[in-house]
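Incident log, support desk, overnight shift.

02:14 A customer reports that sequence design results differ from what the structure should imply. Their input is reproduced verbatim below. On-call engineer (initials T.W.) acknowledged and began investigating.
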């Protein structure tokens, strides 16, 4: 567990400059780099959405590998099925979260 926490903290520290210096392709660069807080939020949303998509693909690849290596053993097939179900649940939660952000974002512009 400690190894996972250290890995996630290191990954967060490595990705922080990417988030901070993210630029929206639709706005011209400004002296500050981002332009305004709206562009910063949009850039962070886009970055998180791309990371989410990558994690979703990886989770399904892992579930597929678990199915392929199960060899018909019921407990291994159950583990693979559980991994696939959690992958689907994660995608549903991610899509709902992104939808909530989109709804709130459009409501704020009205």
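02:41 Re-run completed on a clean worker. Output:
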């Amino acid at each position: 567990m400690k190894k996972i926490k250290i890995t996630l903290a290191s990954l967060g520290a490595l990705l922080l400059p990417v988030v901070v210096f993210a630029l929206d392709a639709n706005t011209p660069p400004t002296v500050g780099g981002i332009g305004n807080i709206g562009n910063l939020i949009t850039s962070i949303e886009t970055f998180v959405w791309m990371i989410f998509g990558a994690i979703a693909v990886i989770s399904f690849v892992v579930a597929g590998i678990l199915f392929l290596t199960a060899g018909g053993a019921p407990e291994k097939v159950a583990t693979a099925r559980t991994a696939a179900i959690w992958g689907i649940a994660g995608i549903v939660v991610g899509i709902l979260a992104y939808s909530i952000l989109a709804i709130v974002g459009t409501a704020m512009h009205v």
